[in-house]
Amino acid sequence: MTLSPILTASPVLQIHIACALVALTVGPFTRLPRGWHMGLGYTWVAGIVGLSLSSFWIPSFGLAVVGHFGPLHLLAVAALHGVWSAIRHVRRGNIRAHRLIMRNVWFGTMGVATLANFLPGRTMNHVVLNGDDRAGWLVIGLGLVALVWLWRQVRGGVSATT
């Protein structure tokens, strides 16, 4: 493991990684009781919003579809929309919808997007795996299995309409 790729990265990528670390670290603790939940929730939302907005200045190397934008940029749009919708729902008192949307935002951004960081050539692949492409694919595969298992564990009993 080496931090060199982060330390020599562009300022936008460094901001992106810092926001990701905030969101990744704080996210699981937002399930604490209400007083903690709100404070940590604001921190998590700031991390997700910073993460999503900064992504628009990061090119999608090898996966670009329109200009420098690729499929992961759609996750950023979905995350921003999800956060906005979840805040709207909680302000209206619909806690179940808020919970469901935030859970989906967490799985999309912290789950899928985090695993995408281990694709060959990505900065975090170089940081954590020293650029080992096969190890990256292994992490992605095992991570997807873990994500599906975790999703199945937490998804029961919550719907946006009830």
Description:
- Helix content is 70%, strand content 0%.
- It has one domain.
- With 162 residues, the chain is an all-alpha fold.
- It is built from 7 helices and no strands.
- α2 (11-26) runs antiparallel to α3 (34-55), α3 (34-55) packs antiparallel against α4 and α4 runs antiparallel to α5.
The count of strands amounts to 0
- End-to-end CA span: 46 Å
In terms of quaternary structure, the protein is single chain
**Tally of structural domains:** 1
* Major sheet characteristics: none
Strand content: under 5%
Based on CA atoms alone, the radius of gyration comes out at 16 Å
* Total helical elements: 7
Structural class comes to mainly alpha
Helix content: over 70%
| N-to-C SSE string, H for helix and E for strand | HHHHHHH
Regions with pLDDT < 50 over 5+ consecutive residues? 157-162
Shape: globular
Mean pLDDT: 87
Short description, anyone?
The chain has about 160 residues and is mostly helical. About 70% of the residues lie in helices and about 0% in strands. The C terminus is likely disordered.
